[in-house]
Amino acid sequence: MRQSQLFGKTFKEAPKDEVSVNAVLLARAGFIDKVSAGIYTYLPLGLRVLNKVQNIIREEMNAIGGQEIRMPALHPKELWATTGRWTDPGDEVMFQFKTKSDKEYGLGWTHEEVVTPLVKKFVQSYKDLPIYLYQIQDKFRNEPRAKSGLMRGIEFSMKDLYSFHRDEQDLEAYYQKALAAYQVIFKRCGLDSLVTEASGGSFSKYSHEFQVLTEYGEDTIYYCDACDFSQNKEVAEVKSGDTCPRCNRGTVTEGKAIEVGNIFQLKNKYSDPFKLEYTDEDGTKKSVMMGCYGIGPSRVMGSIVEVHHDDGGMIWPDSVAPFQAHLISLGEDDSATTVYKELIAAGVEVLFDDRGVSAGQKFADADLIGIPYRLVISKKTKGKIEIKKRNSTDASLEDTTAVLALLKS
RNA sequence: CGGGGUGUAGCGUAGCUGGCUAGCGCGUCUGGUUUGGGACCAGAAGGUCGCAGGUUCGAAUCCUGUCACCCCGACCA
To answer: Which CATH architecture has domain A21-73+108-310?
Structure first.
């Protein structure tokens, strides 16, 4: 992509209506644009990152048997009346409205009410189970207070997977698989997530949250500095300074964290209201056991910025960076264009700064945008390419072959 | 929904206490000189001062209402 053609510009100053690091940097770098509180447009750079996060999630969901579907965002009241959630907590978090002919709808903030009747249409026998369905879609939650950029929107991206099982043992086994998959996802996104015991909220008693330690976290957690023990303050049985009850060696520490994912065992909570049953081998009818598993890709994106940045801007992990390389021409457009074409031909995702602006502005923008590798071509590079990682101060001069080898490694 | 704060050009802001032709920086446009860390010179365009009422000879400035946005809290992924 030629930067001269890229839609979006960088800004020297932070927008006055953003304070959080993720919102300030993403807006300054031209990744997102705020439409209203908690509602953002993803510009080309931002959408590339969001798509990469979503694709990582997609790959790991597919790897544990997930099949992707797409459910509607617009839900008729009747489905929600079945579970009682049209009024509680639906009247709190759900955007609800009437058509001119008084038909009532709500915008989906979770999808048990749609996926359960869907599965009921296709599952009658134990032979039809288990099933794992997921989607990646925008959710709507009428938050009393949207804030902190991508960390809490009222419209936000969410991946929600729902699993359907014969019995609790099968649910439990899959729950553990999903938990492991989640750890892989966050690691691939460059986040250290803590598997945190949590209350079930409006879902169930048995759940885990995936928390990332960050200043802009909204949760307080207690975690062990030696093992993987972690509890949400809401359910904590320990306090800061305690010896870890799991490993008996480490010390429990208090920290602010952001919840980037959560998993629940719903069991029969939603299958029963919808009479989602199957006939078992012995001929008896039984309730389908359900689990649900959520990740907020947009919140993941915001969290990555919160964790990976410096004074100059963002520092994207390779896996989610909008481009792999940022090629900068300093008055050497012809040779830079040749290199650009070579990189494209080699399958490298490259942003080519071919703008007629000063060297200083190009460097500053490159730091702000945060693409992992910076490639400079100028008089000084004498036919070679200067390559530097965003998170390093060391640069070296290489030829195209060596640069390609580095980018492909 | 409680408490606090802010709305002035595309962006960031000064002016408001003490009413009278709205200023600056960035960005944009034109011409020229530049090119290794947000360049320089010369010129130019761009504003119903969030919106609606009111007071006044006269309102960005004072009064009332309203909307939006930010922060803290409550709530939540």
So the answer is: 2-Layer Sandwich (3.30)
Cα–Cα nearest to A367, from A325, A313, A326, A317: A313
Contacts of A280 (CB under 8 A, 6+ apart): A126, A166, A286
One-letter amino acid at A52 equals K
Distance A9 CA to B32 C1' (A): 26
Decide whether A21-73+108-310 matches A325-408 in CATH topology.
Answer: no
Residue A173: both structure tokens together: 């086994």
**A379 contacts A335 by C-beta, under 8 angstroms:** no
pLDDT tens digit sequence for A197-222:
887 544 445 789 999 998 778 899 99
Q: Which amino acid is at A109?
A: W
The HSE-up count of residue A349 (CA atoms within 13 Å, CB side) is 13
Q: What is the ipTM of this complex?
A: 0.94
Condensed to tens digits (0 to 9), the pLDDT of residues A276-332 reads 999 999 999 999 999 999 999 999 999 999 999 999 999 999 999 999 999 999 999
CATH superfamily of the A325-408 domain: Anticodon-binding domain (3.40.50.800)
Q: Which nucleotide is nearest to A140 (CA to C1')?
A: B77
Rounded to two decimals, the pTM is 0.96
Residue A359 CA to B14 C1' — how many Å? 32
